[in-house]
Amino acid sequence: MEFTPLGINLYTFFNLPSAWWCGVRVKEISSKYCSTKVNLNWINKNPFKSIFWAIQGMAAELSTGVLIMHASKSFKCDISMLVINNKATFTKKAKGQIVFSCDNGEAVDKTFTKLLKTNKSQTLWLKAKGIDKEGDIVSTFDFEWTLLLK
Question: pLDDT value at position 84?
């Protein structure tokens, strides 16, 4: 898989179809940063005419998980990765397009360095913030990931 927005979006079509059909897309990716986007539409709305919280969670989780996948490729290691905990805060109705971003790439790299050095399972918390077109934070998600070398 190529680590470009197109490559990851094709990956989601085949491997995370619920996210793809709900409109979650990778917008930008680097070793330190990943952003995803989702637009309010009929398949992901709730009765309050905003994006259902679980769809926001998929977009947020993808922005953090792609950073881990990118690091796995950069460090040339095969891993198991799993979310073991998460928490979310919702501060505004999610209407229109919401962009979720995670800029914790340095923490991911440090965790991979420790994982390879110790050969023991590692955990880390990654944060993704969802921002609307007005620049307001609509939700913040924190995911605790566990990583294990295969």
Answer: 98
- Amino acid 2: pLDDT: 80
Q: Give the C-alpha separation, 150 to 138, whole Å.
A: 37
**CATH superfamily of domain region 5-149:** Hotdog Thioesterase (3.10.129.10)
Each residue of 65-80: pLDDT tens digit? 999 999 999 999 999 9
- Stretches in the chain below the pLDDT threshold 70: none
Domain boundaries, the chain: 5-149
With helix as H, strand as E and coil as C, how does the chain read?
A: CCCCHHHHHHHHHHHCHHHHHCCCEEEEECCCCEEEEEECCCCCECCCCCECHHHHHHHHHHHHHHHHHHHHHHCCCCEEEEEEEEEEEECCCCCCEEEEEECCHHHHHHHHHHHHHHCCCEEEEEEEEEECCCCCEEEEEEEEEEEEEC
Which pLDDT value is given to residue 61? 99
Tokens for 59?
């977009």
* pLDDT in the model for residue 102: 99
CA separation for the pair 148, 16 (Å, rounded)? 21
